[in-house]
Amino acid sequence: MRPIQALRTDPQRRRLLAGGIGLFTVAGLGGFMHPAWSQGKKLPQYVAWKNEENLIVHSPTTIETRRTALANNLLTAERDLYIRNNIAPPPERVVAEVDAWQVAFDGVQSPRTLTVGELKAMGSRDLTMVLQCSGNGRGYFPHKPSGTPWQVGAAGCVTWTGVPLKTVVTNLGGAAANARFVTGTGGEEIPPGLDPKTVMVERSVPLSALEDAMLAWNLNGNPISLAHGGPLRLIIPGYTGVNNVKYVKRVALTAQESEAGIQTTRYRLDPLGSKGNRNNPSVWEMDVKSWINRPDPASGSVAQGQVLIEGVAFGGMTGVRGVEVSTDGGKTWLEAQLIGEDLGRYAWRQFVRPVRLTPGTYTIACRATDDKGNVQVEQRRENEPGYSNSSWRDHGLTITVV
Ligand SMILES: Nc1nc2c(c(=O)[nH]1)N[C@H]1C(S)=C(S)[C@@H](COP(=O)(O)O)O[C@H]1N2
Ligand SMILES: [Mo]
């Protein structure tokens, strides 16, 4: 009934996994990389259960989903979902005992620690949303920022099951009077000898995010794998990937933002050529964005005649109202049709537009409009680390029709 789960608890896989975790070694502030990693394209062993043919392995801790895999399904299977880890995750055994995982709650009237078992008793709901790395689309920045050159596949659309954070906060007497942020702390062990602030994954988001935030134990109906943040993940719908803290061990409603480097100097929209600075805007809410998944130029040329242009579109904090498609690099636009189920405002929609194409070279593009009427931007917002690229021009594709 749950083939993925069966695979996950397979003893052989566990052994492989133990070997895989050993791959993580410290590489300074940049994160964790296998020193001898070359673009081997092989899945690292801790995620050997993933669908290799649907993935692009940039490094053992940065794995991207192929366009074609995103095109095939509305929801992204966990086996196809991208991976981005900053430091080595907690030991695999923590996902064998989901209900025993503990989370400390602070910045509430009655601070206390609760187990996942106790959280499950508070109720649950499903929420479908786009999970997208802040750096998705970084590969299109001409200044070649440091960091993974993701194109479109550092993103997926998945369903989480968990308890609304608001319910937990209410059960703990409500927010502390001075609360302005929701701060989540990842459960990774900090390697000895390192300053925790430089490596810990602790993110703060504005308190308004409490409205739809949740603490999730299931992904697409199964317990979340360790790779994706099991036993428990803090979900901040509409916010970029980094704000969705995996293996969350502490949730605090705080007066100040976290002092962790991942909050203060990283994930900031720093001007080109400048260093990370806490006075620059933090990467939080996602903008309206869309891209084409098919035709995929990586799959070769396209046969003349009717061509279906397919893709996905999402609004970030709202749903999408429509998508337009261009076959002439954005000079003229055609209305596309939204297809498939509407799984709520945080989910993406698939779209399709049939066009007739004769042999030649075409620049195809798409641009979405969200429910509030915001149109996807034409130009990227330049920033040194290469975050938040929603530019429809950058996401255009050149296809050859024969
Ligand atoms: N605890 C913890 N949470 C984390 C991270 C991490 O390294 N540790 N990476 C963040 C980043 S940058 C992204 S894009 C997403 C990736 O989620 P995924 O690997 O499940 O796709 O998790 C976020 N949450
Ligand atoms: Mo990310």
Index terms:
binds the ligand Nc1nc2c(c(=O)[nH]1)N[C@H]1C(S)=C(S)[C@@H](COP(=O)(O)O)O[C@H]1N2; 2 domains; globular; Immunoglobulin-like; binds molybdenum atom; 402 residues; mainly beta; 5-stranded antiparallel β-sheet; disordered N terminus
Description:
The protein has 2 domains: 88-264, Sulfite Oxidase, Chain A, domain 2, CATH 3.90.420; 289-401, Immunoglobulin-like (Sandwich), CATH 2.60.40. It is built from 7 helices and 21 strands. The protein has helices at residues 3-8, 11-21, 67-72, 116-120, 165-171, 196-199, 261-264; strands at residues 55-59, 62-65, 83-84, 102-106, 112-115, 125-132, 155-164, 181-186, 202-206, 214-219, 222-223, 233-235, 248-254, 289-294, 305-314, 320-326, 334-335, 337-339, 349-357, 360-370, 397-401. The strands form 5 sheets. The chain has a 5-stranded mixed beta sheet. The radius of gyration is 21 Å and the shape is globular. Residues 84, 133-135, 241-242 line the site of molybdenum atom.
Short account of what is shown:
By secondary structure, the chain is mostly beta strands. 11% of the residues lie in helices and 30% in strands.
